[in-house]
From TrEMBL:
GO molecular function, one term: lyase activity
Keyword terms: Hydrolase, Lyase
Enoyl-CoA hydratase/isomerase domain sequence ranges: 14-333
Name of the protein described by the UniProt record: 3-hydroxyisobutyryl-CoA hydrolase
InterPro entries from the UniProt entry: ClpP/crotonase-like_dom_sf, ECH_dom, HIBYL-CoA-H
Length: 345
């Protein structure tokens, strides 16, 4: 179906290797479909006792979706992008419910769609090279692939901070915020992956897991929780400006560079996700938001500025938080009728 992902069985282990290293293993539609098909087969194959997800090359597991392709499709109406999101979110849910151990090696850059393929697995491993993020507000989108649920359930307001600033987590912070479970040093990865072909993941982890680096965000909880508990993005910025801490000032600057619409929709999405009982509910919500984003101007503009022209000068519309109305935000959560994803039904 595609040559961009290697699917093979090694001993007792089913191996998924994302194989677009020059593109940081960014996801194509064909890759998603191939992975879903093989995971479905392995689920009922008694010869496969566990699954391992890795990325080719040394730069990262996966930088997310192929957003240039999404940009081009969105300009043509977004039909292909909508189908991409539909199949991607279905795969995220399949991974979260997988009946066998699903080991995700989040080595290097793991962002966006890469988080969707890894952070819903049952065994999530980071290394000292791990850089984990949901950076969607940089491109006029909103955290998706179940990421809004992960962020919503991070301790205190850490997830709100990460979502609005699009900040990255190192291994310690990924563990703190619930995106990962175990730390395995890079030097131990060959032994760890070889062991998975012969023994259960718990035994392989017992051999190779180590103590993770310190979580940077743990020492910033006080001002983060106080500032991001506000009900609006405007009030969050007011609190960040007033708290008198350098990191808070930097966070405010990062937030102000993002799409005003994406910021307001992101905050609303995280608050709603906290109350949702299942990942399926959150994925249904994210599908509505992503479809609405395809019809709004900021997604195409954000990808243009970051990836296509690379001028880093997006012209958001509306341009200010004050211009984004509650009615506009509510439109991103509107029921899609027959086009609903429907995972929670």
């Amino acid at each position: 179906m595609t040559t961009d992902v290697v699917l093979e069985q090694v001993g007792r282990l089913g191996r998924i290797t994302l194989d677009r290293p020059r593109a940081l293993n960014s996801l194509t539609h064909g890759m998603l479909l191939a992975i879903e098909e093989r995971l479905t087969d392995w689920a009922s194959d008694d010869g496969v006792e566990a699954v391992l997800l890795t990325g080719a090359g040394e730069r990262g597991l996966c930088a997310g979706a192929d957003i240039r392709a999404l940009h081009d499709d969105a300009k043509l109406g977004g039909a292909g992008a909508r189908q991409f999101f539909r199949d991607e979110y279905r795969l995220n849910l399949l991974i979260s419910r997988y009946p066998k151990p699903y080991v995700a090696l989040m080595d290097g850059i793991t962002m966006g769609g890469g988080v969707g393929l890894s952070a819903h697995g049952s065994v999530r491993v980071v290394t000292e090279r791990s850089t984990v993020a949901m950076p969607e507000t940089r491109i006029g989108l909103v955290p998706d692939v179940g990421g809004s649920r992960l962020l919503a359930h991070a301790p205190g307001e850490l997830g709100t901070h990460l979502a609005l600033t699009a900040a990255s987590m190192g291994p310690g912070d990924a563990l703190l915020c619930g995106f990962a479970d175990h730390f395995v040093p890079v030097a131990a990865l060959p032994g760890f992956t070889a062991a998975l072909a012969e023994v259960a993941p718990a035994e392989a982890l017992e051999r190779y897991a180590a103590e993770a680096p310190e979580a940077v965000l743990s020492g910033q909880r006080e001002w983060i929780d106080a500032c991001y508990a506000a009900d609006t993005v405007e009030e969050i910025l007011t609190r960040l400006d007033a708290v008198g801490i350098a990191e808070a000032k930097e966070a405010a600057e990062q937030i102000r560079a993002k799409s005003p619409t994406s910021l307001k929709v992101t905050l609303a999405a995280l608050r709603r996700a906290r109350a949702q009982r299942t990942l399926a509910e959150t994925l249904d919500q994210e599908f509505r938001i992503s479809c609405a984003a395809l019809d709004a101007p900021d997604l195409v503009e954000g990808i243009r500025a970051q990836v296509v022209d690379k001028d880093r000068d997006p012209h958001w519309s509306p341009a200010t938080l004050a211009e984004v109305t509650e009615h506009q935000v509510a439109g991103f959560f509107a029921d899609l009728g027959e086009r609903e994803l429907g995972l929670s039904r």
